């Protein structure tokens, strides 16, 4: 459990403290996620709701691995991509999806810690493996749908600039562009809100444990 706590601290720093990821934090995050996925396979780690959330958090770094490996392959083998702009947009959207999934899962872990600290008995029926898996699945579905919308918007932008289109494509372009812009704005404010919520939760937990 100590290693899992260290991993959570690393992820909190990476996604909720640092304003943007860098090469060092990304590399450490990938190593931590790999170690955590191996550790969670051990029989010594009990299958609890927190472990389910942490496992889903570690798996989110697969999106980062895909982006990093793709960039390394293109750079090392000088691979020429027919539509480099769309590929770059896809890799960026995967990184964005990773950030959003990780922030939401970290908040779920923080909320569970809050329930354990202040409502251990009353919240027992909520803190189940089934609910944790359902929550993780919902988060993945919503964020990947967001990623698909962003990629569709990038694809339509590329198609409208390269060739003339008919009215339906223009209508789809305006709709996807407006939806993507709205979603990006909501994601930005949601990110700020999640940071505030996490700080408040751990502030309450810290002072509660100190008073005890």
Automatic annotation (TrEMBL):
InterPro entries attached to this UniProt entry? GPCR_Rhodpsn, GPCR_Rhodpsn_7TM
Where do the TM regions start and end? 12-40, 52-77, 97-119, 171-203
Keywords of this entry: Cell membrane, G-protein coupled receptor, Membrane, Receptor, Transducer, Transmembrane, Transmembrane helix
Q: Name one Pfam family in it.
A: 7tm_1
What are the G-protein coupled receptors family 1 profile domain coordinates in residue numbering?
A: 32-212
Q: Which GO terms describe its biological process?
A: neuropeptide signaling pathway
Q: What is its main location?
A: membrane
Does Transmembrane helix appear among the keywords? yes
Q: Where in the cell is it found?
A: Cell membrane
Q: Name one GO cellular component term.
A: plasma membrane
Q: Which GO terms describe its molecular function?
A: G protein-coupled peptide receptor activity
> Would you say which domain of life the source belongs to?
Eukaryota
Q: How does it sit in the membrane?
A: Multi-pass membrane protein
Reply yes or no: does the keyword Transmembrane helix apply. Answer: yes
Q: Which PANTHER family match?
A: G-PROTEIN COUPLED RECEPTOR (PTHR24230)
State what protein this is by name.
G-protein coupled receptors family 1 profile domain-containing protein
Q: Which organism is it from?
A: Chlamydotis macqueenii
Taxonomic lineage of this organism?
Eukaryota, Metazoa, Chordata, Craniata, Vertebrata
């Amino acid at each position: 459990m100590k290693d899992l706590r260290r991993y959570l601290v690393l992820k909190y720093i990476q996604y909720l403290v640092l304003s943007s990821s860098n090469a060092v934090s990304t590399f450490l995050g990938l190593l931590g996620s790999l170690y955590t996925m191996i550790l969670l396979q051990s029989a010594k780690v009990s299958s609890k709701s927190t472990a389910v959330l942490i496992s889903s958090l570690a798996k989110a770094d697969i999106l980062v691995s895909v982006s990093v490996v793709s960039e390394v392959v293109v750079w090392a083998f000088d691979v020429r991509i027919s539509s480099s702009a769309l590929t770059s947009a896809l890799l960026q959207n995967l990184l964005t999806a990773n950030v959003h999934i990780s922030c939401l899962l970290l908040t779920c872990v923080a909320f569970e810690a809050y329930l354990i600290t202040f409502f251990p008995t009353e919240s027992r029926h909520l803190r189940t493996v089934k609910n944790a898996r359902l929550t993780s699945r919902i988060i993945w579905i919503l964020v990947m749908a967001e990623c698909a919308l962003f990629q569709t918007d990038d694809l339509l932008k590329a198609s409208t600039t390269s060739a003339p289109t008919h009215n339906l494509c223009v209508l789809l372009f305006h709709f996807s562009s407006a939806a993507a812009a709205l979603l990006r704005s909501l994601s930005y404010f949601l990110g700020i809100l999640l940071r505030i919520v996490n700080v408040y939760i751990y502030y309450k937990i810290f002072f509660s444990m100190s008073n005890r």
